[in-house]
From TrEMBL:
Domain of life: Eukaryota
TM region positions: 7-27, 72-92, 104-132, 138-159, 171-192, 198-218, 263-288, 300-318, 330-350, 356-376, 388-411, 423-441
Family annotation (InterPro entries): MFS_trans_sf (IPR036259)
Keywords: Membrane, Transmembrane, Transmembrane helix
Name the record gives this protein: MFS domain-containing protein
Membrane topology recorded in Swiss-Prot or TrEMBL: Multi-pass membrane protein
Location relative to the cell: Membrane
Gene Ontology CC annotation, any one: membrane
Coiled coil stretches, renumbered: none
Species this protein is from: Panagrellus redivivus
One Gene Ontology molecular-function label: transmembrane transporter activity
Keyword Transmembrane: yes
Length: 473
């Protein structure tokens, strides 16, 4: 890769990595902060004095606090998801037609406004926890994390095209930035102590200012004056048409010669895997807080090595296995089994120390979404790639909303009837369907792809050629 191109890639990878680090800090800090905020405003209901709200052994199992915290995060997830659908589509159009840099800068400005709300909540004790939903709505209206990730990858992909660089290598740089940033973020979270929320949010806001400055000094990539008729037509679609296409662009797949039943099975498997993953992400902190009285520090000591292992396996082991001739069906099954046994272990873990085996069991789970995307890409013609991944994005959106509604409601309810593991039992049960498909329908799902891959290693799609969906996977 030419040195100038590599430098420009790192100019976009640096703000992406910094944002990834703050994202790793944000979620557990915010879950802990919202729980504490509710506690300090609910002394008349819970009879827990404000001075005891940082005592995890006292507050962790309180049903009212768990219910309210999960309700607020459910509303926040829904607000973020629904608003980001429209704003991200607008920003995608802006990036295609006007400026990649502007499409990346706008969500960072929105992120700073959301930071301001959270800083105000920590500085002013009287402000209620429900304002967390306002901060998520503001960020979602500005594009949300989806726009930051997609704009960075669009920037890198466009750069690789204009500089005649292998796209997979360019994407690998950005994937590495996300992984390393996440690891550093979770490690940094271990140093955040109780009641240091104001400092944590202030530091995150400072890093976001740095990210915005780095983006503003980037050399912009603007649309080329001469493009193919297809890309020009796509770029100039009206905003309303883009919104419509985001949800229905995949429908022509089922009017074509594409293997419809195979696509339905693969998308269903992807949806089950994503549903179990996003459900775990949403409630695992509160789950461990309730069962083992965990706090922010203990949770970070779990997530940092997990992030390291999952990043290492997807960036290094996955491509190695692919180049060695391992089929996508096998890799998908490995990932699904890893996710299944990880969820199963969280059900049966009996104390704090036993939970840490989850790091190893779940460490290969990112194989499944990447391999399934590859199988989907092989199932359709090249001119239908956009449609198939449009369908995947709709499934991700639906599963995110469904998981938020189900698990943020079910988990506090399951505490009341004495079996808080219920949510993870459901997630593990949902994974049995895709596991069964890849065990018993292996020849149908991936037979032709497997034959092609055994003929030549050159036909194996590199990891980053198919990494087009949510980064959380």
């Amino acid at each position: 890769m030419p040195q100038n191109t590599l430098l420009r890639l790192w100019q976009i990878a640096l703000p992406l990595g910094l944002y990834s680090a703050t994202s790793a800090v944000f979620f557990p800090v915010s879950q802990s902060f919202v729980f504490w905020k509710i506690c300090t405003h609910s002394t008349d209901i819970t009879a827990i004095p404000v001075s005891a709200c940082t005592n995890r052994s006292i507050v962790s199992s309180d049903v009212y606090l768990q219910t309210e915290a999960n309700r607020i995060f459910m509303l926040g997830n829904i607000a973020m998801t629904l608003t980001a659908v429209f704003s991200a589509t607008f920003l995608g159009k802006l990036g295609d037609e006007k400026s990649r840099k502007a499409a990346l800068a706008i969500p960072l400005v929105g992120l700073l406004l959301a930071d301001a709300v959270l800083i105000a909540m920590t500085a002013i004790p009287a402000m209620p926890a429900i304002l967390y939903v306002l901060s998520e709505t503001i960020f979602g209206l500005a594009g949300g994390y989806v726009s930051i990730m997609s704009s960075c990858f669009a920037f890198g992909s466009h750069l690789s095209k204009t500089q005649n660089v292998d796209r997979s290598k360019a994407m690998a740089v950005l994937e590495g930035a996300i992984g390393v940033g996440g690891i550093l973020g979770f490690l940094a979270t271990t140093f955040i102590r109780k009641s240091e929320y104001l400092l944590a949010y202030a530091l995150m806001a400072f890093v976001h200012v740095v990210c915005l400055i780095l983006v503003l000094i980037l050399t912009d990539i603007k649309p080329e004056p001469v493009e193919s008729s297809i890309s020009t037509k796509t770029a100039k679609l009206p905003f309303a048409t883009r919104i419509k296409d985001k949800f229905v662009a995949w429908i022509p797949l089922f009017d074509s010669n594409a293997p419809k039943n195979k696509i339905i099975l693969l998308v269903s498997c992807f949806g089950c895997s994503f549903f179990a993953m996003i459900g775990s992400v949403q409630i695992i902190f509160y789950y461990l807080k309730h069962r083992f009285h965990w706090d922010l520090t203990l949770f970070s000591f779990l997530k940092a090595p997990h992030q390291f292992m999952s990043t290492a396996t997807i960036l290094f082991l996955f491509p190695y296995l692919k180049s060695s001739g391992t089929s996508d069906t096998t890799l998908a099954l490995i990932g699904l089994l890893s996710r299944f046994f990880g969820h199963l272990w969280l059900i049966f873990a009996w104390n704090t120390y036993s939970v840490y085996l989850w790091v190893i069991l779940d460490g290969f789970s990112r194989f499944s979404p990447t391999a399934i995307r590859s199988l989907l890409a092989h199932s359709v013609e090249s001119d239908q790639q956009g449609r198939i991944f449009s369908l995947v994005s709709v499934v991700e959106l639906f599963c995110s909303l469904l998981a938020a509604l189900i698990f943020h409601t079910l988990f506090p309810a399951s505490i009341e009837f004495g079996f808080p593991q219920t949510s993870f039992v459901i997630m593990a049960a949902v994974l049995l369907f895709p596991i069964g498909v890849f065990v018993f329908g292996r020849q149908y799902i991936g037979g032709k792809v497997d034959i092609q891959e055994t003929k030549t290693q050159d036909e194996a799609i590199p990891l980053n050629e198919v990494k087009t969906g949510s980064s959380s996977e």
